[in-house]
From TrEMBL:
Compartmental location: Nucleus
GO CC annotations on file: nucleus
Gene3D superfamilies reported for this sequence: 3.30.310.40, Helix-hairpin-Helix base-excision DNA repair enzymes (C-terminal), Hypothetical protein, domain 2
GO biological process, one term: nucleotide-excision repair
Annotated family: Belongs to the type-1 OGG1 family.
Segments of skewed composition (Pro residues): 1-10
CDD domains in alphabetical order: ENDO3c (cd00056)
UniProt keywords, alphabetically: DNA damage, DNA repair, Glycosidase, Hydrolase, Lyase, Multifunctional enzyme, Nucleus
Domain HhH-GPD: 159-333
Name the UniProt record assigns to this protein: DNA-(apurinic or apyrimidinic site) lyase
Organism: Brassica carinata (Ethiopian mustard)
Catalytic reaction annotation: 2'-deoxyribonucleotide-(2'-deoxyribose 5'-phosphate)-2'-deoxyribonucleotide-DNA = a 3'-end 2'-deoxyribonucleotide-(2,3-dehydro-2,3-deoxyribose 5'-phosphate)-DNA + a 5'-end 5'-phospho-2'-deoxyribonucleoside-DNA + H(+)
Amino acid sequence: MKRPRPPSPPSISAAAKPPLSPPLTPILKQKLQRTGTPKWLPLKLTQTELTLPLTFPTGQTFRWKQTGPVQYSGSIGPHLVSLRQRPGHATVSYCLHRSASPEAAEHALLDFLNAEISLAELWSDFEIKDPRFGEVAKHLRGARVLRQDPLECLIQFLCSSNNNIARITKMVDFVSSLGLYLGEIDGFEFHQFPSLERLSRVSEDELRKAGFGYSRAKYITGTVSALQSKPGGGDEWLLSLRKLDLQDAIAALCTLPGVGPKVAACIALFSLDQHSAIPVDTHVWQIATRYLVPDLAGAKLTNKLCSRVAEAFVSKYGEYAGWAQTLLFIAELPAQKALLQSSQSIKLVKSAEKKK
C-alpha cells in the first residue's frame, strides 16, 4: 500500500521564509511572470487516485481555492500551483505559476498529496473488511488524505474549532496574507504561509480586530509562543511528532493552548503521518453509531466515547483507519450524500425492472 517515500524536503514553514515586517504591514505584490499560455504537466496520478473535489473542499485545508470548473490552486511552501482534471484525460495535471525550481515544486506537490500511498490498494483492503465501504467507495474514488506542513495545519485547525466554513476561511486568509505574496489566480491572492517568527509578531489585539475573537486570538498567540520555546524550534518539534506513536503525538499536541483531542487528531492525520488518527465530531459519531458501535446510539458524546469510536474504526479498518474515516465523512457531506442517494435510487429502479 505504501511505496518508498523519497527523502523529505525541509519544513515548508522553515524554507524560504518571508522577510520580517511589522504586523499588518502590506506586503509588496508582484505580478506573476507568465510567458504565453500556462504550461500544464501530467502528475502521474489517475482520477481514481486523486479526485480534486473530493480532496480539497472537504475540510482538510482551507487555503486552496477553486479557480476553474475542476481546478484548485494553492501554495506549497514557496511554490504556487494549480491542479485540474479534464474530461477524457486519465491523469490529473498541474501548472506551476511561481517556483524557483520545477523539480523541487513537483517533489513538494507529490509529498503534499501523499502520492506514495496507493488508494486502489487501500480501498481493496477496506472493501474486504467492510462491504458497505465498497459500495460508498464506488462513487467517491479519489478522496485522498493530504500531508500538509504541520505548522500550517495546526494554525488552520485552531481557526476551525467551533466555527463555520466562511469564518474559518476568512481567518485563514488573514493569517496567510502575512506571508510572502506569490501571485493572483482567478481573482484570488496567494501567499506562502508565514513563518513561526512572522506569526510571533502578531498581537492578540490585532487578531481580535481581524475577527478572531478573544479566545481564538489568545490560543493562536499562546500556541505560537509555546512553539517558539520548544528545543530546536517549533518547526522541528512539530516534525518530530511524525516519529511518535499516535497517542504520544496527540498528547504532545494537546499541551498547546486551544488544542483538544479532536483538533489534535485532525493535525495528526492531515500533517503528521498518523494514518490511524480519527477526528471524532458529530458526523463521525453518527457514522460510528450507525455501523460500528450501534449500542452507543442515543448516548451523549464524551471524550471517553470519542476514544471508543476511534478504537472501533481502527479495529475495523486497521492502521489506515483515518483514510477510511475520511471517505465516510465525505460521504456525509450534503453534495456527496445526494449523489449516493441518487445512485441508490437508480440501482433500486434497475433491480425492479429486472424482476419485472
